[in-house]
Amino acid sequence: MFDKLKKQHIVADEGFNRWKVPPASIAIHMCIGSVYAWSIFNPPLTRELGVVSASAGDWSLQSVVWIFSVAIVFLGLSAAFGGKWLEEVGPRMVGTVAAFCWGGGFLIGSVGIATHQLWLLYLGYGVLGGCGLGLGYVSPVSTLIRWFPDRRGMATGMAIMGFGGGAMLGAPVKEFLLGLYYQAPTYLGPEAAVKMITEGGRRLAEVNGQMVEVVVAGAKQLAAAPVPLEEGVYVVGSGNTGAAATFVTLGVAYFVIMIMAAFAFRVPREGWQPEGWTPPSADSASRKMITDKHVHIDQALKTPQFYLLWMVLCFNVTAGIGVIGVAKTMMGEIFGTTLPLIVNGAFAATYVLMISVFNMLGRFFWASASDYIGRKNTYYCFFILGIALYMSIPYAAQQVSVAPAVTWLVMFYAATMIIFTMYGGGFATIPAYLADIFGTKYVGGIHGRLLTAWSTAGVLGPLVITQLRQASLTSSLRELAAKVDPAAFQAKFGAGIEQLEQLVAAKTVTVAKLMEIAPAGTVDPTPSLYNTTMYTMAGLLVAGLIANALVRPVAEHHHMQDEEDEHLHALEVPRATYANKGQTASD
């Protein structure tokens, strides 16, 4: 049964319309592209027990963000190994396996959420789902490049546009499902009416003769709830964020769509070319660094071009992926306290949606533009413009904290949206860049191996942004606590300032709650939490700019000379073996 999925059984007949292939590619990429809306899950997963506010037993934002990172790591690893397998078995087989991994990852993840076992969420969504991401990502790319040799950039842009657009549909669907399955926790009454004690940093209240953990939710926490709720005290563990049921629903839906799309794949026969198309002249190809030779998948790893392009992709992705992973949270922290009437929960959710829109449009726009201006020049645009835009974000955050104005929000919004077009454009342009440098014969496998840069960026980006943010947050909490009246602190949290570290660890003390009792005129430090991160990202883009400038055409001795050399290379039989026996290669 599985043998029927292999590429020798899906060769297209004469007269096949190549435009039937892109819709299947886009469908798969839109399913797996919903990973970009992961930040939608950050709030419910970080208050899975408290529901309306994080409790002491809830997962931290840092631990939840790392699930996204693990998925990206396994995306790169599975693409690196699956890319070569793709060249052997074809896109239908790989697409089918991707459907099982991605859909199954959601189902296992749902069990982890329901039982509050974080390792199951890592195993399901992170490891298994990440493998589905990698296999689903590479399966259409080399196929489309072969179907559209006349428009390599546009072809890869079409498929990878779907990946960027996955969050555009995924974000509102996830928000809807979370609201559908949401159950409010038990309400005990206003904070002033409920007698509470603090033990080990936790707030406890008596319910039916027993002391149970509770959380205190203010207007800011309740604004994100999908149903209207009253401010006050709620019982931990008595509600449901709806995250587990949402995972089940998405897992089943994605599996069905991806299976249908995988069975729509066809591959062109050997030597096929679009009717009426003439390959570019040698002079035109030389100017854009487009080769008519081929480099074997294993030989590509011996060239400096592979590692330079690896760095180009890694630094471009690192700069954007850390921001995408915490996009909704970052928007709320920078502008939620300074412009609360504008930047509410609905605004932040729309911001995530617009990230997906611009990410998607950038993939098609920049990849298509690269057909005309060249891949190297396209990456020059990414790095030079990106450096300036990343440097502008801390400036906007600093200005809005001093003098809140919509102007700074508009500046921040525009800068980040342009950044996300280039982030997505980098992904869509790199397969065509590889095809130009190494030829089209093994571009799928080479692309898969290059995606290990994405894995590295998937760790590096969130690590940088969470660690630098945490360092800024810790420093801000200490500075704020030092300004607060000790008596007011004792009355607010039921413990002295000397227990600050313990209270922060239990999530009882936050910047927002400290600001409620801070002296008048105290500047909220929340908008500046990401300043150091943005400067670091700009530095990474400088490194990417240098790597791109060093890319040159592959040296002649790396090229495959003819079909006999290809056969010998595949069998890993050195030509010297024949020479020693006095034989020729044709013998």
Do you know the CATH architecture of the largest domain? Up-down Bundle
Largest sheet: 5 strands, antiparallel
Number of domains: 3
Structural class by SSE content? mainly alpha
Radius of gyration: 27 Å
Q: Share of helix among residues?
A: 55-70%
Count every beta strand, where a strand is a DSSP E run of 2 or more residues: 5
Range of strand content: under 5%
Strand arrangement across the biggest beta sheet: 1-5-4-3-2
Quick check: average pLDDT? Answer: 84
Termini distance? 38 Å
Discrete helix count: 23
**Rough shape?**
globular
- Element string (H = helix, E = strand): HHHHHHHEEEEHEHHHHHHHHHHHHHHH
CATH-wise, what's the superfamily of the largest domain? MFS general substrate transporter like domains
Residue runs with pLDDT of under 50 for 5 or more positions:
568-587
Your description of this structure?
By secondary structure, the protein is mainly alpha-helical. It is built from 23 helices and five strands. It has helices spanning 21-32, 42-45, 61-89, 91-114, 118-138, 141-147, 152-181, 219-222, 243-262, 282-287, 304-325, 327-335, 345-373, 375-402, 406-438, 443-450, 452-483, 486-493, 500-505, 511-517, 531-549, 563-571, 575-580; strands at 187-189, 196-199, 202-207, 210-217, 232-235.
